[in-house]
């Protein structure tokens, strides 16, 4: 779409120059492909170039606009209707859906669970992954294999993880069986349906599944810290932990902040694991429902597509606000260089 | 595939003979404990499939005695399982090809053509990163339904391509920009058109980036759950994640068989991961850093 509107303007400008270039009788005037791209591309009535751009970008743009931008825009539109999903929406209700959402205690619970998941993901995974990354960054044989193995849970499908853990965590499952075997039978719990416990169970599973990603990310960040710095500190008599505290941690800042950003957004959108393990009904009674499971349960599964879309909009706005605040106050230093570089090209 | 041949990300090797020193026993012990915690649940799923339900009821956390292969052979003999493997494979392969083809073409224009709307175009694609599928899923379902693509693999392939495009373009554009202009000039002096340059030079030179992007798309598609959940409602069109879930609820009393089905369904992903682990790990870190 953008290509179409923009190319005529470019060509009109180029047309005038093109005549002049042709008059100068360059060595290869008839060649369609310009010999020196940056110079000659500007100076030709380049229908061919416009055609190439349309041909190359067109398919991607159509698919992207049709399946990403259009649905997102439609979500905003449908959110103002009470609509069962058949025929065009006619029952305009204004902001009624949003009022209902914001007053629904079930949604408040889901929002609260999301907040807990965001904070606990950072608190549990961050330090743990940092320690692991420091451990695995020490030069030793076999470190590559260890790194790969830690990453395995991250690659598994959420469904596999969810199904496996929900079988293991049943009250007569393997976890309780193991606890009894090693004499800790008193610790056996109803891990999944005890409302005081379920969200901690969920946090355990999330940590297990996603910590590999944090570790790999931190390891990559650690590789970027010049060895000379730690060597110099060592010569000056700094201990291992002093070096990590004073040199490694500050220099790892950008990596940590990017990871935290990805973790926060992922936690706000969490759906798969909860829906697979707890299903749409049990999630709210077990205290693990999230905004996304609320959206699916009350939107599509209930047949209220207008309402579901409104929930999606709320979810998006909350994520956007969090992302913008984070970008503004935390990531500003890290992205400043990248953004200016991008815009000048 | 020994320890010394894989390096992820390329580990700093001490100068000298290039072999890493042995770490302290404490370090190995710590690493071993962590790996044990990471792999034990996966091991339980795989080994649990070799037990019978009676064994599991009697001792939920024990080892198989004797080993029973009945669960695995039953799953492997079922047409449902193979149908779902086929569906998942088709969806993942077509998605990957589509993402790579469309992403490469668009990135090529964004990286190497100069035109007025380029910045806007790049920003449009990059904005896609702000819309996770969770936000768009409900209207996306309606779009797919109106196109008559529910219960068909095309109904999940097209949205998957669309949602993978932003990250793909963001990874590939710097890659293509790094190809020197001199190369393009040389090619054009030799009579190569810009499209010819794309096919003959850009595609081969961009291979490392393309492989990274392709692997990410393949794994995302293979593991994808929410989209198939909305789009595919007939058992015949199920992909493996839906199949695992359907199987688990259908045979909820037959724990052993569910474990067998689950572990068989993760084998393709594990094989794929072990072949490409270097690329996957490197690609993820590169994508986030870059």
TrEMBL record, chain A:
Keyword Membrane: yes
Keywords per UniProt: Cell membrane, Membrane, Transmembrane, Transmembrane helix, Transport
Membrane topology according to the record: Multi-pass membrane protein
Residue ranges of the TM segments: 51-80, 111-136, 148-168, 197-220, 256-278, 305-326
Main subcellular location: membrane
PANTHER family noted in UniProt: ABC TRANSPORTER PERMEASE PROTEIN (PTHR30193), INNER MEMBRANE ABC TRANSPORTER PERMEASE PROTEIN YCJO (PTHR30193:SF37)
Protein family per UniProt: Belongs to the binding-protein-dependent transport system permease family.
Protein name as it appears in the record: Sugar ABC transporter permease
Species assigned in the record: Agromyces albus
From TrEMBL, chain B:
InterPro entries registered for this protein in UniProt: MetI-like, MetI-like_sf
Compartment annotation: Cell membrane
Residue span, ABC transmembrane type-1 domain: 85-276
SUPFAM superfamilies given in the database record: MetI-like
Pfam families named among the record's database cross-references: BPD_transp_1
Residues passing through the membrane, by range: 26-47, 90-111, 120-144, 156-176, 197-220, 258-276
Keywords for the protein's UniProt record, in alphabetical order: Cell membrane, Membrane, Transmembrane, Transmembrane helix, Transport
Database matches in PROSITE patterns: ABC_TM1
Membrane topology reported for the UniProt record: Multi-pass membrane protein
GO cellular component, as recorded: plasma membrane
Predominant location: membrane
Gene Ontology terms describing biological process: transmembrane transport
PANTHER family given in the database record: ABC TRANSPORTER PERMEASE PROTEIN MG189-RELATED, ABC TRANSPORTER PERMEASE PROTEIN MG189-RELATED-RELATED
Family assignment from sequence similarity: Belongs to the binding-protein-dependent transport system permease family.
Protein name: Carbohydrate ABC transporter permease
């Amino acid at each position: 779409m953008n290509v179409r509107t923009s190319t005529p303007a470019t060509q009109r400008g180029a047309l005038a120059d093109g005549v002049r270039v042709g008059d100068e009788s360059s060595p290869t005037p008839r060649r369609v492909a310009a010999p020196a791209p940056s110079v000659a591309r500007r100076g030709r009535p380049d229908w061919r170039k416009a055609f190439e751009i349309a041909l190359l970008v067109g398919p991607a743009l159509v698919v992207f606009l049709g399946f990403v931008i259009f649905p997102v825009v439609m979500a905003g539109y449908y959110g103002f209707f009470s609509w069962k999903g058949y025929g065009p929406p006619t029952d305009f209700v204004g902001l009624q859906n949003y009022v209902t959402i914001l007053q629904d205690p079930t949604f408040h619970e889901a929002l609260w669970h999301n907040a807990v998941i965001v904070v606990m993901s950072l608190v549990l995974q961050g330090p743990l992954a940092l320690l692991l990354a420091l451990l695995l960054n020490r030069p030793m044989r076999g470190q590559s294999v260890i790194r790969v193995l830690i990453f395995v849970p991250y690659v598994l499908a959420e469904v596999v993880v969810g199904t496996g853990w929900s079988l293991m965590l049943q009250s007569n499952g393997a976890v309780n069986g193991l606890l009894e075997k090693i004499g800790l039978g008193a610790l056996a719990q109803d891990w999944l349906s005890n409302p005081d416990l379920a969200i901690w169970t969920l946090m355990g599973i999330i940590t297990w599944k996603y910590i590999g990603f944090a570790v790999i990310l931190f390891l990559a960040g650690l590789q970027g810290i010049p060895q000379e710095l730690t060597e110099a500190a060592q010569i000056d008599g700094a201990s291992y932990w002093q070096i990590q505290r004073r040199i490694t941690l500050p220099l790892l800042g950008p990596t940590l902040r990017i990871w935290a950003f990805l973790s926060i957004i992922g936690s706000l959108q969490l759906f798969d694991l909860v829906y697979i393990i707890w299903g749409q009904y049990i999630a709210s009674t077990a205290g693990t429902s999230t905004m996304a499971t609320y959206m699916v349960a009350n939107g599509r599964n209930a047949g209220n597509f207008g309402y579901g879309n409104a929930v999606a909009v709320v979810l998006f706005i909350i994520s956007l606000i969090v992302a913008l605040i984070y970008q503004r106050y935390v990531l500003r230093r890290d992205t400043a260089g990248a953004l200016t570089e991008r815009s000048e090209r | 595939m020994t320890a010394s041949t894989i390096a992820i990300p390329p580990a700093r090797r001490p100068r000298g003979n290039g072999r890493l020193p042995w770490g302290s026993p404490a370090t190995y012990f710590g690493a071993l404990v962590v790996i044990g915690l990471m792999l034990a649940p996966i091991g339980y799923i795989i080994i649990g499939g070799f037990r019978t339900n009676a064994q599991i009821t009697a001792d939920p956390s024990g080892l198989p005695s004797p080993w029973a292969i009945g669960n695995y052979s039953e799953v492997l003999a079922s047409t449902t399982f193979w149908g779902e493997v086929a569906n998942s494979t088709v969806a993942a392969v077509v998605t990957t090809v589509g993402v790579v083809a469309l992403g490469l073409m668009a990135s090529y224009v964004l990286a190497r053509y100069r035109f007025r709307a380029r910045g806007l175009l790049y920003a449009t694609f990059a904005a896609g990163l702000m819309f996770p599928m969770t936000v768009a899923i409900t209207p996306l379902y309606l779009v797919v339904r109106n196109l008559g693509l529910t219960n068909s693999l095309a109904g999940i392939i097209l949205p998957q391509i669309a949602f993978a495009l932003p990250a793909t373009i963001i990874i590939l554009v710097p890659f293509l920009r790094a190809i020197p202009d001199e190369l393009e000039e040389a090619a054009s002096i030799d009579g190569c058109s810009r499209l010819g340059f794309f096919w003959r030079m850009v595609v081969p030179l961009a291979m490392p980036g393309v492989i990274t992007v392709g692997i990410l798309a393949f794994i995302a598609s293979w593991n994808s759950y929410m989209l198939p959940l909305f789009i595919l409602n007939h058992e015949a069109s199920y992909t493996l994640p839906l199949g695992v879930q359907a199987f688990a609820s259908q045979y909820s009393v037959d724990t052993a068989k569910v474990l067998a089905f689950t572990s068989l369904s993760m084998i393709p992903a594990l094989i794929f991961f072990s072949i490409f682990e270097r690329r996957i790990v490197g690609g993820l870190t590169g994508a986030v850093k870059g």
